[in-house]
Amino acid sequence: MSVHDLAARALRTVDPERAHRLALLGLKAGLGPRTDSAAWPILRTTLAGIELPNPLGLAAGFDKDAEAPDAMLRAGFGLVECGTVTPLAQSGNPRPRLFRLLPDAAVINRMGFNNRGLDVFVARLRARAHRPGVVGANIGANKDSPDRLADYERGFCAVYQHAAYVVVNVSSPNTPGLRGLQERDALDALLSRLAVVRTPLAAAHGRRPLFLKVAPDLDEPAVVEIADLVAGHGFEGIIVSNTTIARPLSLKSRHRGEAGGLSGRPLFAPSTEILRQFATALNGRATLIGVGGVSSGAEALAKIKAGASAVQLYSALALQGPGLIAQILANLAARLEAEGFASVSEAVGADLA
User: Could you tell me the strand order of the sheet in which 261-264 lies?
Assistant: First the structure.
């Protein structure tokens, strides 16, 4: 076990939100691990036209204010997603709002988009403009905003030129009413608005891939509707999925009844099934990123074979430590070779045939 994983284990004895803050401070101080993200040539791939050294990404939520994306890239991630950022700074929901469910290898959070706002976020992205590595921006709306569509437009325009890709997060369960933006008419209005403002931004700064992040708590008709809207409005892809409001009966932790979004191991199966449904509905019209319960090379490969071109994780990293990144990458590379795949792209959607 590395010194970094020992530190992560020690942090598990601390209040989870304080532990997260200490971890970020350590990363900013240069104390994080070092893993060559391109050490496994078989893992080199592309995501909506972006070249990646590997398909393993850090999901949004870990680095809400873009404080340490370069440290996470040095740790081995092929892409890092910062945010969710809202136009105005907000404190989020009352504490406690983050809970470890250790017997379940899971986390429940009801953070509520706590972040320092667009000005701080964009300044940090601008400061790293000429550094290597793929860093995306995940945008949301303020809780008390009178016009959430305007919030998304403002965030989109602010981060566009400074991010490798942009994610529109309409699926957090911790901002009241936000998931209503996944309904057909509301989503159509939002995507239409962003498509209009995207044209001059792309002309000025080049085209950035645009993703929609969705919930796992969708039925099949909703999956088909969302897939058609995303493809119809020219979005490059969908991130499947955010946390779930479901509570499986298998949960053992005393925190299992806490309100908020559940992530980690219990999310793997349902999020992978929804991913598969989106892959079928899209039929190649957009790219997918798979998120939810990834903690091993086997689970990463399962997401890829279900249709994901890249995968992301967060909860497993928080529970197991940063040594997990290299373990997943090495295991994923070995599994691809063992199953006869010459590349990640060759494995994408292999289970859909």
Answer: 98-101, 106-109, 261-264
Would residue 184 count as lying in a domain? yes
Count of alpha carbons within 13 Å of 238, Cβ hemisphere only?
36
CA distance 321 to 317: 5
Q: What is the CATH number of the domain that holds 47?
A: 3.20.20.70
172 in active site: yes
pLDDT higher than threshold 90 for residue 28: no
CB 152 within 8 A of CB 194: yes
> Which residue is associated with the tokens 């599994």?
335
In a domain, 197, yes or no: yes
Model confidence over 116-130: pLDDT tens digits?
A: 999 999 999 999 999
Q: Which of 172, 263, 271, 295 is catalytic?
A: 172
**Whether residue 10 has pLDDT greater than 80:** no
Establish if 353 belongs to a structural domain.
Answer: no
Q: The tokens 């667009």 sit on which residue?
A: 118
